[in-house]
Design a protein that fits this description.
Blueprint: H1 12-33, H2 38-65, H3 71-95, H4 99-127
Helix pairs in contact: 1-2, 1-4, 2-3, 3-4
Length: 137
Amino acid sequence: MKWNSSFAIGIEAIDNQHKKIFEHLLAIENSVAKRDPWHILHFFLAQLAEYMKFHLAVEEALLEVIRYPNRAEHCDSHQRLIDQMAELEDQLKNQASGGNLVGFFESWFIRHVLSGDRDYAAYIKEEFPTLLGKRAA
């Protein structure tokens, strides 16, 4: 799966980070398709995990600054993702297959971005239109 403009939420910095997540997912998907050994797949997974932690921290800081009303719920979904990533890595070590991993991240990303991230983006556009460099209507 590749990035397309329908995933954009309209906040350039966040959209750019989402694109980078897709790059990491593509590397994992290619590694799985080539049936790379565990250590190579693990390398790509570690890169994704570190970038995801960075991205989620950026989102959480943004939500804190704007005092997003659904911040706690959104941050809880981030923590669940981090916990699930650790479980998936353990499963991957035992099964030596990354297919489930790629599918998990793709479905999580689509659900999370198309609902949760779009919700806070709409809040920002409504409450803080100047943050996006646009004037209020």
